[in-house]
Amino acid sequence: MSAVTASVLTVEDEPIVRADLRLVLEDAGFSVCAGAGDGVEAIELAREHEPDVILLDLGLPRLNGVEATRRIMAERDVPIVALTGRSRRLAEEALDAGAHSYVLKPSAEEEVVGKLIDALAAGESLTIRGAREESRRSLELLLGLLGYPREWALDLERHAFRQGRRLASRRARGAGAMRVLIAEDETINRLDLRGIPEKADFEVCGEARDGQEAIDLARELEPRPEAA
Question: Band of the pLDDT at 201, cuts 50, 70, 90?
């Protein structure tokens, strides 16, 4: 399961289960922004933190999960994955209230993470899609100017989007900037290429003029584990 950079609000009335969910989700690459213990708190924390996705148990005190889902969705369109060990009928009610999907307990960790990833993918905003399309067009133009096939733009954009998510995850964990090694034989092109990752807050750690130099620099610049 690949990591995902996204904030998630967990809603579960059992503190031990809530703590377990946090460990599972953080291990999968999510950032758990908050944990609610009942339906009323879920609405308040969803309003305060504006998470990217919500994992919400339906058997909640004070305000049941179905009603909490309905009220959260009335305020903000956010993907919600419902958890229930009671009945499929209750899960269907959560779907009617606006939840994206549900998981029946007991469930495997992989199923919960997978449902959250699916919910995020389905809820990707038009703004992000538009930005990615603009990025692809810009890459097509740049590739054309540099004499490379424009067809590479789609794969390059997908790779850059994944790397951007990983970079955001590193920042959330307090890690340093991601490093880029540029391999290009033309000096002018190398200068042009250097500006692209630097604008995206990547660190250009080296430049190579040929394949062998690229291999040598990649080996030299590879991070070494610290001695115990």
Answer: low
Name the residue among 40, 37, 41 with its Cα closest to residue 13. 37
Q: What is the DSSP letter of 105?
A: S
Closest among 29, 57, 30 to 41, alpha carbons compared: 57
**Tokens encoding 189:** 């092109």
User: Is residue 88 packed enough to be buried (19+ CB in 10 Å), middle (13-18) or exposed (0-12)?
Assistant: exposed
H or E segment at 2?
Answer: none
Mean pLDDT of 111-134: 77
Contact 12, 58 (CB under 8 A): no
User: pTM of whole model > 0.85?
Assistant: no
The amino acid that residue 43 corresponds to is: I
The average pLDDT across 78-95 equals 89
Mean pLDDT of 211-219: 84
Q: What are phi and psi of 105, to 5 degrees?
A: -85, 150
* Superfamily holding 7-122: Response regulator (3.40.50.2300)
Nearest in space to 82 (alpha carbons), one of 49, 22, 44, 39? 39
Structure tokens at 21: 């969910």
Give the start-to-end residue ranges of the domains of the chain.
7-122
Return the bridge partners of 158, or none.
none
Average pLDDT over residues 222-227: 43
Write out the two tokens for 43.
Answer: 């609405």
Residue 97 near residue 67, CB atoms below 8 Å:
yes
Question: What average pLDDT does this structure show over 28-39?
Answer: 93
